[in-house]
Design a protein that fits this description.
It is found in: Vacuole membrane. Belongs to the amino acid/polyamine transporter 2 family. InterPro entries: AA_transpt_TM. This is Avt7p. The chain is an all-alpha fold and 491 residues long. It has a single domain, classed as Amino acid/polyamine transporter I, CATH 1.20.1740. It has 21 helices and two strands. Strands 1-2 form a two-stranded antiparallel ribbon. Helix 5 crosses helix 18, helix 5 runs antiparallel to helix 19 and helix 11 packs across helix 21. It is globular, with a radius of gyration of 24 Å. The chain starts with 6 loop residues before the first helix and ends with a helix.
Length: 491
């Protein structure tokens, strides 16, 4: 399919990915951090998240066809033995986001229609389960429009409510006695709430599809999309975070919308829009979750099991990928002759890859491609970089995941706690650690492949990639420890 996305539409899609339900927890982080530190941490998360996105875009340019980029493809080029770790990070992220959606559904709908939170969580299965059983989610594309409308409405509502209350003089006592302008209110909650901000900035899950669909996918244009998306998201987070915290002070809760008058017509409309967005958006993140779980299961079967490819069609599809079209490192050097470009560039052994179905034509075309490409690693032709589903496995993975998520949602009461745990684990892995590992291995490899020194700019980005690895691991362990420690004390 010919790429047709413009920079403007890509910015809209990336902003939509970054700005989600986690926006409502940003004011709660300001409650612990204070205004000044909260702003600084938001800017730090924005810069490091943007750096992670840029490193991933640089990594995509090491492929002979950057439009084939994906986490899976780059992982198999760099750390094939860590492929299940990449999938596990995606599982944690998507599982945690899905859990936070259900917890938020339990917070929102009782304020509109009454009833117990657990009742509304269970009632959501009427819509969510059928949508999760749909294998092609094209019909859910309008949920993005609903989601943007809901978040825009709620953001305007939060800011306008602050301005109105400030104009009426009702915030004087709060601003004077409850707001920490220059100091940190809660040192113990600092790292825990920082992971909430990191969670809010997570957008790398949809970066590669954006790169693949951009009509002009030059690094300059991709950087333009990333910079504008991060800037717009940061502005929105600061407006919501500061306005919400200054309005309610120490009374700010993890889900800000619960601080407002439940009888207000404007709040009821906002809650209904938010709840509807959560329900129709749940299947959009459930699909990559199910794929990642299936990938891990197949990897375990191949690596540790005794599966026979002749008996298990899934294993057969998985293993016969080794002779498919290779992807090699590009050599971005216009001074080199065509003969130089024909030399082997990045030698890798062929590896087993979890992929989708292939027809005879694709295999035949692959054999022709293998005669022309050398010194490369085998990866699939199509864009489906996961193991194929057999019918029974598709349904029992769906059942197990839904039961697990709903069981936890019925027992977990804190929306902010869920965001802290997911932000400390899945979000830091996908936003910092994994991009750092990929960038450190791939950036500059095209120069080394032709016997040239790494450019100073690429050397700088390799150091930044290494920084992202240690930064992500540090934030993960410290935030996870503080979050669990605080939670155990509160219990």
């Amino acid at each position: 399919m010919e790429p047709t996305s413009s920079a403007l539409s890509s910015i809209a899609n990336l902003v939509k990915t970054i700005v989600g339900a986690g926006t409502l927890a940003i004011p709660y982080s300001f409650k612990s951090d204070g205004v000044l530190v909260g702003i600084l941490l938001t800017l730090l998360a924005a810069i490091t998240s943007g750096l992670g996105l840029f490193v991933l875009s640089k990594c995509s340019k090491t492929l002979i066809n950057p439009r084939n980029s994906s986490f899976f493809t780059l992982c198999m080029l760099t750390y094939p033995n860590l492929a299940p770790i990449f999938d596990l990070a995606m599982i944690v992220q998507c599982f945690g986001v899905g859990l936070s959606y259900l917890v938020l559904i339990g917070d929102v709908f009782p304020g509109i229609f009454g009833g117990e939170r657990n009742y509304w969580i269970i009632a959501s299965t009427v819509i969510i389960i059928p949508l999760c059983l749909v294998k092609k989610l094209d019909q859910l594309k309008y949920s993005s429009i609903l989601g943007l409308f809901a978040l825009a409405y709620i953001s305007i509502l939060i800011f306008s409510h602050f301005v109105v209350q400030l104009g009426k003089g009702r915030l004087t006592d709060t601003l004077q006695n409850e707001i920490c302008w220059w100091s940190i209110h809660d040192f113990r909650g600092l790292l825990s709430t920082f992971s909430i901000i990191i969670f809010a900035f997570t957008g790398s899950m949809n970066l590669f599809p954006m790169i693949n669909e951009l009509k002009d996918n030059s690094l300059e244009n991709i950087s333009l999309v990333i910079n504008n998306s991060i800037a717009l998201s940061t502005a929105l987070f600061l407006i919501v975070g500061i306005s919400g915290y200054l309005t309610f002070g120490n009374k700010t809760v993890g889900n800000l919308i619960l601080n407002y008058d439940p009888d207000s017509t404007w709040i009821v409309i906002g809650k209904f829009c938010l709840g509807s967005m959560l329900i129709v958006s749940f299947p959009l993140l459930f699909q990559p979750l199910r794929v990642a779980v299936n990938n891990v299961i197949i990897w375990i079967e191949i690596t540790f099991g005794n599966s026979d490819p002749q008996e298990d069609p899934q294993v057969s599809e998985y293993t016969r990928a080794s002779n498919l079209r290779p992807i090699s490192m590009t050599v971005d050097d216009p001074t080199q002759s065509n003969d130089a470009l024909d030399t082997p560039s990045y030698d890798e052994q062929e590896r087993l890859l979890p992929i989708g179905n292939f027809d005879d034509d694709s295999v035949e075309n692959q054999e022709n491609a293998n005669n022309n490409d050398r010194g490369t690693m085998a990866v699939p032709v199509d864009n489906e970089h996961h193991a194929p589903f057999i019918k029974s496995r598709f349904y029992w993975i769906t059942a197990v995941l839904l039961i697990s998520i709903y069981t936890l949602a019925l027992s977990v009461k804190s929306f902010a706690l869920v965001l802290s745990l997911v932000g400390a684990t899945g979000s830091t892995s996908i936003s910092f650690t994994l991009p750092g590992l990929l960038g450190y291995k791939l950036i500059g490899s095209d120069s080394l492949a032709i016997g040239k020194m790494i450019l100073p700019r690429d050397r700088f980005y390799k150091r930044c990639s290494l920084f992202l690895v240690f930064y992500g691991l540090s934030v993960m362990f410290l935030s996870l420890y503080i979050t669990l420690f605080n939670n155990s004390d509160d219990a």
